[in-house]
Automatic annotation (TrEMBL):
The keyword Metal-binding does not apply. It comes from Pseudomonas cremoricolorata. The keyword Membrane applies. This is Transmembrane protein. SUPFAM superfamilies: TPR-like. Keywords: Membrane, Transmembrane. InterPro entries: DUF924, TPR-like_helical_dom_sf.
Length: 198
C-alpha cells in the first residue's frame, strides 16, 4: 500500500539517480513559480490539513516526517506566494524539524532530501537555528563525493547568506512588507542591495 506522503515525495524529488540529477530536474519546481498551481491542485488539501495541525501520524517515520516538513515549509511558499500565509506553517515546521533532527532521522534520508529539512532552519528568524543550519550544511557538504560538491557548496552558500542577515537584523527585512512590520532605515537601505531578498 502506498504511504500517503509518497506521491508528494515523488513529485518533489523525482527519480534522479544522483543529487545533481534530482536538482537538475526539480530546481524549477523548488525555486521557480511555474509549478505553483500544480502544487495547489495536487497537494492543496494536504497543506491545509497540515497547517491546521493535522497529519501528526506522518511523524512516525523519516519519510513521513520529511513529507510533513514539505507541507508546512515549502508548499505554503508556493500556494500562498507573496502573502503572509506563505509563512503560516513555519513555526510548526521548525518544531517538527527539530524533533526529527534530535532523533537522527535526517541521516535516514538521502542527502538531497536532507537539504529540505535544513531549509526549515534556514527560513527561521532565530540565530541559533541559523547557526545550526550552517553547521549541518557544512557536515552535509563534507560527506559528498566530488561530483556533488558544487551543488552542496551552493546550498551552504545560501545558508550562510541567510545566517548573516539574521545575525545583522534578527529577521528577514524582505518579509517586513508582507507581514506588516515597519522597516528600520538600515533595513530599507539593505533592501536596495543585490541579494537582499530570497
Amino acid at each position: 500500500m502506498l504511504a500517503p506522503w509518497q506521491p508528494l515525495l515523488e513529485w518533489w524529488f523525482g527519480w534522479g539517480s544522483s543529487a545533481q540529477a534530482v536538482a537538475d530536474e526539480k530546481s524549477i519546481v523548488w525555486f521557480g513559480k511555474q509549478h505553483d498551481e500544480e502544487a495547489r491542485a495536487l497537494f492543496g488539501l494536504l497543506v491545509e490539513e497540515a497547517l491546521a495541525g493535522g497529519l501528526d501520524e506522518w511523524q512516525q517515520s523519516p519519510q513521513g516526517w520529511l513529507g510533513l516538513i514539505l507541507l508546512l515549509d515549502q508548499l505554503p511558499r508556493m500556494l500562498y506566494r507573496e502573502t503572509p500565509h506563505a509563512f503560516e506553517g513555519d513555526r510548526r515546521a521548525q518544531v517538527v524539524a527539530m524533533q526529527g533532527l534530535q532523533k537522527g532521522w535526517d541521516y535516514q534520508l538521502l542527502p538531497i532530501q536532507r537539504v529540505f529539512v535544513l531549509l526549515v532552519l534556514e527560513h527561521a528568524e532565530v540565530l541559533d537555528w541559523q547557526n545550526l543550519c550552517v553547521e549541518r550544511y557544512r557536515v552535509l557538504l563534507e560527506e559528498q563525493p566530488e561530483a556533488n560538491r558544487r551543488l552542496f557548496e551552493g546550498f551552504l552558500d545560501y545558508a550562510e547568506q541567510h545566517q548573516r542577515i539574521i545575525e545583522r537584523f534578527g529577521r528577514f527585512p524582505h518579509r517586513n512588507l508582507l507581514l506588516e512590520r515597519p522597516s528600520t532605515s538600515e533595513e530599507m537601505d539593505f533592501l536596495l542591495e543585490p541579494g537582499s531578498r530570497f
